[in-house]
Write a structure and sequence with these properties.
The chain has about 375 residues and is α+β, with helices and mostly antiparallel strands. The chain has 8 helices and 21 strands. Helix 2 crosses helix 3, helix 2 runs parallel beside helix 4 and helix 3 packs across helix 4.
């Protein structure tokens, strides 16, 4: 196992005959020995580029990478003692599961008896012992994924890199494999760097999450920190399903206190931003309550659509000119066109000042 230090990593494509594309911009990150950290963001945010540079499959334009203080930036992939699992299983179709698992050890000249022992150990850990004599085409998607994980684990790497390894699985199997990955990490305590566009995977698996956009790290923190205290509007909207509601308005001073004023509402703010500027109020769907029409601070709204989502319902409502989503238990039934009253929890509000995705959170 190893701690990983990423120092001012930058990757640029093009720049002479074509316009420069900055896939990564000044990424600095410390990953503790044995930590499970996820890089998450939309397509093209730079997360896979960062992983490929750590693996040695891409050369950085500038910056460096250290494993336990050892600079490995210029080393070949085979000299980094890393293992990588890709989105595609990349198994050799003409080989059995056993042959796929032991292939890397065989290329490194590991004796046959030692290879056999390592294969049996990894197969027992991943519960694929009965599959060792099968070919990949005889396996299900989940079984192939276990073999791909086993082929990486058998190398006993310092750092384990996973590039969207569950994206090809169906929803039910993905949930099952998430649980298996989490249990595997708890058992091995190997440093794992996981790339995904699925924020639910990042939230459920990670010790910490790195949220990226346009090659820039937006925020790093525990899942709870990322969800409850997003650094900017991009993080707030990207993390969470359904995403955080955003209401445009401005900050005004009323009765000596700052208030957020938008179409059809005026809310006293627990934070103390400067009055007089444009701002965006963020509130998660679960932090909006249905209240009586005459309750203090009640905000009138009209239901447009109501969706059943298993144990919950998502109600799409119009609050003034702002469309928002309210999450309730499935037993709460509302009908399109119905007028309701909403209450916003003051201590669960988020305020963003600035423009676009970079609008910063006010604490």
């Amino acid at each position: 196992m190893a701690g990983v230090h990423i120092e001012r990593l930058h990757k640029q494509f093009g720049g002479k005959a074509t316009a420069a594309v900055h896939a990564l911009a000044d990424l600095t990150l410390d990953i503790a020995d044995g930590e499970f950290i996820s890089l998450v963001g939309p397509s093209g945010c730079g997360k896979s580029t960062a992983l490929r540079i750590i693996a040695g499959l891409e050369i950085p334009t500038s910056g460096r990478i250290l494993f336990d203080g050892r600079d490995i930036t210029g080393l070949e992939p085979r000299d980094r003692n890393i293992a990588m699992v890709f989105q595609s299983y990349a198994l050799y179709p003409h080989m059995s599961v056993r042959q796929n698992l032991e292939y890397g050890l065989k290329k490194r000249g590991v004796p046959a008896a030692e290879r056999a022992s390592a294969v049996d150990s990894v197969a027992a850990m991943l519960q694929i012992g009965p599959l060792l004599d099968r070919r990949p085409r005889q396996l299900s998607g989940g079984q192939r994924q276990r073999v791909a994980l086993g082929r990486a684990l058998i190398r006993d790497p310092e750092v384990f890199l996973l590039d969207e390894p569950l994206s090809n699985l169906d929803a039910k199997l993905r949930v099952h494999m998430r649980a298996e990955l989490a249990a595997l990490h708890q058992k091995l305590r190997t440093t794992m760097i996981y790339v995904t566009h699925d924020q639910l995977e990042a939230m459920t698996l990670s010790d910490r999450i790195v949220v990226m956009n346009h090659g820039v790290m937006q925020q790093v923190g525990t899942p709870e920190e990322i969800y409850s205290r997003p650094a900017n509007r991009f993080v707030a909207e990207f993390i969470g399903t359904p995403s955080m509601n955003m209401i445009e308005g401005e900050i005004r001073a009323e009765g000596g206190r700052p208030h957020f004023t938008g179409p059809g509402l005026s809310i006293a703010l627990p934070m103390a931003p400067s009055a007089g500027g444009r701002a965006t109020l963020g509130v998660r769907p679960e932090d909006i309550a249905l209240v009586a029409a005459d309750a203090p601070g009640a905000i009138p709204a009209r239901v447009t659509v109501s969706e059943l989502a298993g144990a919950e319902r998502y109600h799409f409502v119009s609050l003034g000119e702002s469309p928002i989503i309210v999450r309730t238990p499935a037993t709460t039934v509302l009908h399109p066109g119905e007028t309701i009253a909403l209450g916003l929890a003051p201590d669960r509000l988020h305020l963003f000042v600035g423009t676009g995705d970079d609008a910063a959170a006010v604490r």
